[in-house]
Amino acid sequence: MAEEEEVVSGLALEPPEPGGEELVTYTAGRFVVAAPPSWYLMAVRAAENDQVSWPQALADATGCSEARLLPIDDLAQADLSVWCWLTPEGGRYVEIVDATACQLAVYVPDPADWPTFWADFVVPALQVQVLASLRRELVRLRVRRRVNPRPRRASSSPRNR
Question: Would the pTM count as exceeding 0.85?
């Protein structure tokens, strides 16, 4: 009995060629591996052959000169960053990166899939960022308080008399 291919609803995506470039794609609420679109291959070639930085190569290939970048604050302080490029066909290409490497790179070709992807994957990543920032700030405040404790004020409560 021949293996049946799994049918995935959503956009018709080309399967990757054996040994060829692959791109994780989010479509119809699922992740699949698909052949990358031409703009992605152009970005890969520019980054590899022309020594163009990856964000610039994507900007040039997609025509999206201003990738959405979160958090907006200082990247040196961020634990995670979210880069999002609008693609020529109306989809989005997203990378969630930390200080060491890209942790998630996903192509969302259908604009109808974007709200679900955003809510299920990008927002939780940003929540981690916010929690890590809060933790860092609390640690900083604790250290500062130990180094420079304030003098206690006299209280008018009966137990201090």
Answer: no
Question: Is residue 7 included in any domain, yes or no?
Answer: no
Q: How far apart are CA 63 and CA 74, in angstroms?
A: 25
- Digit-coded pLDDT (tens) for 92-135: 999 988 777 778 899 999 999 999 999 998 888 888 777 877 88
Is residue 154 in some structural domain?
A: no
pLDDT of 64 over the 80 cut: yes
2 in a structural domain: no
- Cα angle for residues 105, 52, 81 (degrees, 5° grid): 35
Mean pLDDT over the full length of the chain: 80
CB atoms within 10 A of CB 13: 17
Q: Is residue 153 part of a domain?
A: no
Tally of domains in the chain: 1
